[in-house]
Amino acid sequence: VITRFQAFGRPVRNMKKFEEGVFSDLRNLKPGVDACLEEPKSPFLDLLFKYQCIRTQKKQKVFYWFSVPHDRLFLDALERDLKREKMGLEPTTHVVGEPAASFMYDAKRS
C-alpha cells in the first residue's frame, strides 16, 4: 500500500497513523479463511523477522496474499487521508507529484 501511495505521488509521512488505519482494515480478514495464526517464534515468523518483514515474533495473523484486498486498502487509506485533509487535520501523506496533485476528491462518489 505504501508503494502505491508513492507511485500515486503521495508518499506517507506519518507512518504510525497511516499503519493504524490499514491495520484496522486488516482486522476484518479472518484467520483460517484469509490468514493463518502463527505461534510465537515459529520458524516462519523467525524467517520473516530475520528479513525485517515483521517487527516482533509474538503470535500474529499472517495474511494470504491473494485474500488481501490491496486495491480496497489503498482506496480506503486515501479516502481517510483526503477526509482528514478536508477537515483541516494533519494528513498521513503529502502531495509531491502527479496524479495526486490533480486528483479531486468527491465525497458523494465514495
TrEMBL record:
GO terms for molecular function: DNA-binding transcription factor activity. Keywords: Nucleus, Transcription, Transcription regulation. It comes from the Eukaryota. The keyword Transcription regulation applies. Its main location: nucleus. SMART domains: STE (SM00424). Pfam families: STE (PF02200). One of its GO terms (cellular component) is Ste12p-Dig1p-Dig2p complex. It is found in: Nucleus. Coiled coil: none annotated. InterPro entries: Ste12, STE12_transcription_factor. Belongs to the STE12 transcription factor family. This is STE-domain-containing protein. The lineage of its organism: Eukaryota, Fungi, Dikarya, Basidiomycota, Agaricomycotina.
